[in-house]
Every structure is written in C-alpha cells, then in structure tokens.
Amino acid sequence: MATRRSVALRHLLPWRLLDPFHPDVSPNLHILRRGLALWSMKKDPALEAALSRNRRWIVNNQIKHILLRSPNHTATVRSLQKKFKTLDLQGKALNWLQKYPCCFETFSSDDGEVYFLFSKRMAALVDEEEAVRASTEPAMARRLAKLLMLSRDRRLNVVKLNELKRNFGLPDDYIIRILPQYPDTFRVVNRYGRRNSTEIELVRWDPALAVSTVEAAAAERGTEPRYTCSLPPTWVKTRAKFDEFNDRTPYISPYSDDWKESEKRSIGVVHELLSLTLWKKASIVKLEHFKREFGLPERLNFLLLRQPCIFYVSNRYKIYTVVLREGYRGSELVEKDPLVVMKDKLGELMQEGLHEYNRRRRLANLEKKRKRGEIEVRPKEEEDEEDEVEALRLHSAEKREERKRFYKVLFDENP
After folding, report:
1. Cα gap 34→159, rounded to integer Å
2. pTM exceeds cut of 0.90
3. R_g of the chain, CA atoms, integer Å
4. Core vs surface per residue 36-61: b (16+ CB within 10 A) or e
5. Residues 6 or more apart whose Cβ sits within 8 Å of residue 269
6. Could you say which DSSP state residue 164 is in?
C-alpha cells in the first residue's frame, strides 16, 4: 500500500526518475534515497525508554535556573509568565507552580505582586547539587582535557563546545569557573579577534589521560584492546560481522597521532566521546559539527549504523541520537555520574509534588460533588469493608495467574 510520502514523491518527480534502473536517474538521487534508508535501525525498547524525555522535568529545571539567576533566588510570577512561550508552555504560570508544591512556593507582597521561590526541600536539593558540582570539578577538568587531547589541533572553539557542554556535565560558567584553576592545562586564545573565534587550547599533554575506555577495560581484563558487542547472542550474523571487524585490524587509540582516516579510528573517537558524556549519548547532528576537529567521516550516520553491536541510533522526537550500548543495562545507566544522581533526585521530588497536587485536587473535587449531592456519603465502616473485599478479589486473581504459570511450565513440551 502506497504511503502519503511515496504518493507525494510521484507527484513531485518525473516518472522516469521513479524507476531506479532508468538511465536518466541521477546518481545523487540514489545517494539521497540510500541516505534516508540508512537512518533506520531496529528499535530497542529499553534504549528507547532511556531516551524518553520528561518534558515536565525539563521545564522545572529551566525554572530552577531562572530562580538561580534572580536576586535572592526570588522572582515574580509575572516575569515567568512572559517567558512561558520560550519554555513552550501555555496557560498560567501560577497554575504550573502550584502543581509542584514540593519544588516551588508562592507569596504575595503588600502591593499585590505575586512572587515565587524554592521550597525548603528544593532549596536543600539545589545546595546539595552545587556541593556535588564543586566536588566534581576535577573530573570536569579531566573530561575537558581529554576532549582537547582528542582534537586534531589540541584546541576547540568555545561556541561549538557550548553545544555539547551539558552532555559532558560542564556548567554554564565553566570558562571562568574551571579554566583559571588549571593554568598549566588550559589556555583561552582568540587568534582572529572575533567574538565567535574564542578557543580553549591544551597547554600540556598528560599521558595518564591518553588512555581510552576500551584500553582501560582491556588492561583490567589483561587482554588486548577490543570492542565488545552488547547485542544478545541471537544476533548471530551481526555478531559474526562484528567479530570479523574486530579481528581484521588492531584497535587504534583515539589519542594516537595516527590521523590517517580509517573506520576503526573514527569508531574509536566516537566511542570515547560518548564514554565521556554523562548519559552515554549525543546528538549526531551536533557531533557532525566536529568533523574536522575529531577527524570524523563525512557521513557519520553510515559509520554508526554499520556497527549496531557498539552503537544504537534512534530518531526519537525527530532528533537523531547515538547511544553507546555498553553504557546501559536495559534502560538504566551502568554507572551514574554524581550529577546524574542529582538530576534523578530532582525528578523524584517533582513527581512527589505532582502526586500531592493531584491528590488534593481529587479530594477537593469529591468534596464539591458531595456538597452538590452528586455522591452519596457512606459510613467509613462500609468503605473499609469494600476495600477488604477488593483486596481479597485481587489476591484471588493473583493466585489464579500464578497457578496458570505453574501449570504452563509443568506441562509445556518446549520449556
């Protein structure tokens, strides 16, 4: 059955161009079709779940940064309302804040202006996050140094780096917060005198940092550096191709001076870049901005899709993202950076506040219906009896399901 897209292409393209074997077909059209087709990969439900965004968390995190930039961490609801469009939100800002009582509090001044600020628990969480960030500054510096060591000229443009700073856990003020503490490692230069040409340059090469994740894992195992396949054993053909790729040529360290373009070196660079990120994933489009700096191929997506044992490519939210498979166990990170743990705590606090808001709203609606006589008010003893009957019913259902599973295993001919 023809899709809408294929029908549209038939209207837009001459009939002869729709025949792939027609002599008038341009080679560029073949490349275009092939490029579109090669963006697809078999879906991994666990990794797709790991890529799912919590839009509410993103908005509340942005509101948190708004308060952190405000005097005394207090701002007017009116000012937040003006920024609602930039936050991709509609409705009233006050209603949004009231949905998260565990995160934000509101109060009115004498002149009637409504302000909002952090709740006590949220303020404590913000302070804890700042303490964690301060304690992880040496790790941030090492991460930044390794990024510069991966680059061709040992320097990176600040504007480009800012696109990926959150992936690597760098704060907004990392240039004035981290760089001055390590003058023997970093230097800020501007060779052309333009604002967008500011670069961070590596001052000193550290051999101790020039060890990739693959090399470190091999040293622990006492083996030669090799990539590992994170696909299940049932992927026989894919794993066979991967073993052939692993055995064909030796591993090339992304920190080596061998800049001759090769598939194995490019895979090593992307593998190391993803290993340095907090969530072991990155936008492919943003990675392509660093083709020259990191020596990446012109068609990075082709390279990634040829190695499904190492990388997972997803187009969730119409954003092409590459994930390092070995960084996840199911949908959870194998190792969580302290900053990731803090982000999870914010999500838990936010969810707790939302549940409390929904509970209060449900009780208020029930009370309104009772006052209007729409709901019959029953004695508490009757409600308790109904709860007990419901619990027994559920317990019996669980027992029936357990018996079904037991007999299925007992009499199944192909266990």
Report:
1. 32
2. no
3. 28
4. eeeeeeeebeebeebbeeeeeeebbe
5. 150, 254, 294, 295, 296
6. S
For residues 168 and 277, the answer to whether their CB atoms sit within 8 Å is yes
- The answer to whether residues 97 and 77 touch, using CB atoms and an 8 Å cutoff, is yes
Angle among Cα 281, 285, 289 to the nearest 5 degrees reads: 105
CA angle 228, 233, 239 (to 5 degrees): 55
Q: Are 196 and 167 in contact (CB under 8 A)?
A: no
Q: How far apart are the first and last CA of the chain?
A: 39
Mean pLDDT by 10 residues, the chain (415 residues): 44 37 37 44 84 78 91 92 81 87 90 92 93 94 95 93 92 92 94 87 94 93 89 86 86 86 88 95 92 90 90 84 92 91 88 76 76 62 52 54 46 38
Angle at 289 between CA 286 and CA 293, to 5 degrees: 125
For residues 271 and 214, is the Cβ–Cβ distance under 8 A?
Answer: yes
Alpha helices in 137-259 (DSSP H): 137-150, 158-163, 174-177, 213-221, 236-248
Task: Residue 76: name the closest of 93, 61, 91 by CA.
Answer: 93
* CB-CB contact of 408 with 414 (8 Å): no
Structure tokens at 348: 């838990």
For 169, phi then psi, to 5°, come to: 75, 20
C-alpha separations of 265 from 176, 248, 259, 281 in Å: 33, 13, 8, 19
Produce one character per residue of 265-280: b if its CB has 16 or more CB atoms within 10 Å, e if not. Answer: bbbbbbbbbbbbbbbb
